Amino acid sequence: MTDVTAAGEVPLPPAPFKSSVMQIEPQWIDYNGHLNMAYYNVMFDRAIDEMWLQIGIGPAYMKERHCSTFTAECHVRYIREIHLGDPVQITIILLGADEKRLHTFQEMRHATEGWLSATSENMSLHMDMQARKVAPFPSDIRARAQAILGSHAAVARPEGIGRNVAMPSK
Fold first, then answer.
1. CA–CA dist 34, 48 (Å, integer)
2. Which residues constitute the domain of residue 38?
């Protein structure tokens, strides 16, 4: 279901955000016969770019306002192999947003069968590209991010958020 921002101007995307269905490219398959780990990140990045358009921080934002986002931290979990020919869709939950950061959690699923292949939890920083420094979001973008954050607050939190990399305890 689509909601409307407080200003009533631009509809909010559904919560959680769902990317377009993507296809795995043949050159992304490694010698193990599955998607190479680097290309999971490519697909997660493509999905986040789709969501950033909904917030208003896509390529036009970079060109017109000279700001963008950089990923400061990323934690990927590889849960089930995905192969050439498997359609992929990524859901994204905005977990947190403040004046300079966006915290997201993404799930990569087989687009027709629904099983979970991987997750990615990320912290993105808002960047002033002329100064090449972290900078506050403009008020309109911050308001849009807060509206999306509010709509995502009602989404059930998937398993895996906030996990650390560590050896299993005995």
1. 22
2. 17-152
Share of the chain above pLDDT 70, in %: 95
- 134 touches 100 (CB < 8 A): yes
Q: How far apart are CA 159 and CA 151, in angstroms?
A: 19
Number of independent structural domains in the chain? 1
Q: Is residue 124 part of a domain?
A: yes
Q: Does the CA dihedral 145-146-151-153 come out positive or negative?
A: positive
95 backbone dihedrals φ, ψ, rounded to 5°: -90, -30
DSSP string, 143-163: HHHHHHHHHHTTSPPPTTTT-
What is the pTM assigned to this prediction? 0.91
E strand or H helix that includes residue 18: strand 17-18
DSSP class of residue 26?
G
